[in-house]
Amino acid sequence: MYITFMRTIAILNQKGGSGKTTTAVNLAASLAESGRRVLIMDLDPAAAASSWLGFKDANRGLLEVLTEGKNLVDLVQPTAIPNLDIIASSMSLSGAGKALAGEIGVETVLRKRIAKLPADRWDFLIKDCPPSLDLLTINALSAAQEVLIPVEAHIMALGGLYSLTQTVEVVQERLNPGLFICGILACRVDQRTNHSREVVESLHQKFGKLVYKTSIRENVRLAECPSFGKPITMYASSSTGAEDYRSLARELLKRNKQN
Prior knowledge:
There is one protein chain. 39% of the residues lie in helices and 14% in strands. It is an alpha/beta fold. The protein has a single domain, classed as 3-Layer(aba) Sandwich (Rossmann fold). A seven-stranded mixed sheet has the order 3-4-2-5-1-6-7, with helices on both faces. It is globular, with a radius of gyration of 17 Å.
């Protein structure tokens, strides 16, 4: 195992609209609310998680970490949420692949930088990965213990799930033997429709215990809270969205880490 001082979870789906950033921000906030010390790392050049939490211009920070050896800990900033820190992203990260081309061990650069973080400062590192299987994503997977895959409760979202799990297996085989999928999360579940319920049932049938018992119900408050710069636990604390993400955090904490 490459990283042992904190649970390091990459939140990943190459399909847009899956609930990836929503899950990264709200799971991190729910864990922080429970008293865990959480660091969220925004690896998506779109910087949606950063903007959501009030960080709109991170300049070239993460890119310089990857390409020039800048210390990752220098980019850590506190958020307005107790127990939650962030390493923010920016559009400059979109040039990471080109900037790193030709470097030896290019797939493990981020792992080396994360290994220098303070060993006892956080309980969780949550990574919001890009919505693509690019070099940034491979770096995120090579520097993670666990992968959490949010999936929209729509039949079209299931097609890419198999290729995504295969990618995780390839990274596990070639770069990170300790990597495993800690869970698949059904998101945007509209319990009023047969289609949505059938997709969730299909997930459970095909992936068994990998699928979380918790699912994230469609909720207007979840759609609103990024505009107000707050996670759902602060924006609408009694909403079904807050209830679902707190439930996910409890389930994640109960699931044993793989040794």
